[in-house]
Design brief:
By secondary structure, the protein is mostly beta strands. It is built from seven helices and 22 strands.
Length: 515
């Protein structure tokens, strides 16, 4: 048993890693002034709430995870608890928790609960409710009683086929996660959720957006990845604060909504044959990803996206880049691999801020290919000379092995094409792209599409990190201002995620310290 003191806030916290020590009444005497307690049952001995916990009169925050109890004796819980986490257990019922009137945060995620209590009106202080990862097929109408105080609701990874109107009456809720259910539509009354800022509905069977969604005027983040959407209707333009929209892995063929506030748009793995006209009216767009579609050309209207910083168009059928693309002087990331281009426009050297470029898996002209192998700077200089009619001299033997070439200010990572193996993604036929995202969790490392990307080294705050669905950290600002927005899931919210990390995260932290 460990104790530590948060003297800066005047709180006493206890972390229990060996739950066998809880069986000895003597050990509880040391905990009489504890206000926050986190128990992780590594020994698998806890079968119910420890009986001596009622003696902790100052306890306000309690987390018990990885235990094996299936029932819950709520009579043993201190009535003044404000935060309760019982995630990753084997609970079959949440009965009795509705009597905990002081709760502000309740997390009962990843259990085996099939229904919620019918009377939730006593939870008059509850602001965050996480019931993700259970077996819920219905949300009781009694949840309407939380409409004045609930701010975060996580219903993801359950068995919901529809959302009741009671959920839509939660007019103060800001974050709703219904991902990984069996929803075929969003409720028509979703427009009643006027305070909603983040909606996550990925991995369902949704075929369209209801017209009432235009009334969710506070919405900033919309993630509806891996559904059955065919269009983005024009009435979505009334979402005047929408910044991030993730619609990957749908059946989209049309995008009719000019979203003036949109900064990041992810519409990979859809059925677009052309870039929609409404897209070029999103004048604040900074990140655009349309990988794995059916695009044959990039319209000259691309120049209207003056703030664009990252453009991902790999695995389409694009045969030529328009010269207007080269007027995007804010562009930093350009990923085009797997298209049908053989040459670049002469004005390409005007992309002065370009730091990430991927032209792999294309039959480029020999001079461009050799310059590209030497790095972004060499390619830009080559294109500048061609544009001005200067003599261009390239050393065909200068194909460098994969290594880092250091310079005073920049370094270029280059790859030796002669060292490719049969398993290298740069060789062979095009992979089955439409199957590469066919999992419920973000699949594939970002490096899989960028392992051969040439880049100038940037300061640590500008390096690419994370998986394919993670942030591309051009800057370490909050989600939505980064080039590649994260697939955010607000589950495990509150203090539990911060103070009581699970075993795997703890082991990762220990490993990183050793390194």
């Amino acid at each position: 048993m460990k104790l530590w003191y948060a003297t800066e806030k005047g709180r006493t916290c206890a972390v229990v890693k060996s739950s066998r020590k809880l069986e000895d009444e003597k050990n509880w005497k040391d905990l009489k002034n504890v206000s926050e307690m986190f128990i992780e049952d590594e020994d698998g001995v806890i079968r119910n709430i420890p009986p001596y916990i009622t003696s902790l009169g100052h306890l306000r925050i309690l987390s018990i995870r990885w235990a094996k109890f299936t029932g819950l004796n709520t009579a043993l819980l201190p009535r003044l608890l404000t935060h309760l986490c019982l995630a990753y257990n084997h609970l079959h019922s949440a009965a009795g928790l509705e009597e905990m009137s002081s709760l502000v945060v309740l997390n009962i995620a990843n259990n085996e609960i099939s229904s919620l209590p019918n009377n939730l009106s006593n939870l008059k202080n509850l602001k965050e409710l996480d019931v993700s990862g259970n077996k819920l097929s219905k949300i009781p109408d009694s949840i309407r009683a939380l409409r004045h105080q609930l701010r975060i609701l996580n219903l993801s990874s359950n068995r919901l086929s529809h959302l009741t109107n009671a959920v839509c009456d939660l007019d103060k809720v800001r974050v709703v996660d219904v991902s990984m259910n069996m929803l075929v539509s969003l409720p028509e009354r979703i427009g009643n959720m006027r305070s909603l800022t983040e909606l996550y509905a990925s991995d369902n069977k949704i075929v369209s957006f209801p017209p009432s969604i235009q009334s969710c005027s506070s919405l900033r983040y919309l993630h509806v990845r891996k559904n059955r959407l065919t269009e983005v209707p024009q009435y979505m333009e009334y979402l005047i604060h929408l910044e991030v929209m993730n619609l990957r892995q749908n059946n989209l063929v049309d995008f009719q909504s000019p979203l003036s506030s949109l900064k990041s748009l992810l519409i990979d793995t859809n059925d677009f044959r052309d870039m929609p006209e409404a897209l070029f009216k999103c004048h604040n767009l900074e990140f655009l990803s349309m990988e794995d579609n059916l695009l044959k050309r990039i319209p000259s209207e691309i120049q209207e996206l003056r703030r664009l910083r990252a453009l991902y168009l790999s695995y389409n059928e694009i045969a030529e880049l328009p010269s207007e693309l080269c007027s995007l002087d804010q562009l930093k990331h350009l990923v085009l691999h797997g298209n049908k281009m053989t040459r670049l426009p002469l004005e390409f050297y005007c992309l002065h801020n370009l730091s990430i470029l991927n032209l792999e898996e294309m039959d480029l002209d020999p001079d461009i290919r050799m310059a590209y192998r030497e790095g972004v700077s060499s390619l830009m200089e080559h294109m500048r000379k061609k544009a001005h009619g200067d003599t261009v001299t390239l050393n065909p033997k200068k194909t460098l092995p994969e290594k880092e070439i250091s310079g005073s200010k920049t370094a270029v990572i280059v790859r030796n094409s002669m060292l490719r193996t049969s398993g290298d993604s740069m060789t062979g036929s095009k992979p089955n792209i439409r199957g590469r995202y066919a999992v419920s969790t973000p699949a594939g490392s970002l490096a899989s599409s960028r392992e051969n990307t040439i880049e100038r080294k940037k300061p640590k705050s500008e390096l690419i990190t994370g998986s394919r669905d993670s942030v591309i950290a051009i800057s370490r600002a909050r989600p939505g201002t980064n080039d590649r927005p994260p697939e955010v899931h607000p589950g495990h919210v509150g203090k539990f995620q911060i103070r009581a990390s699970d075993k795997r995260k703890s082991s990762l932290k220990r490993a990183s310290k050793k390194d």
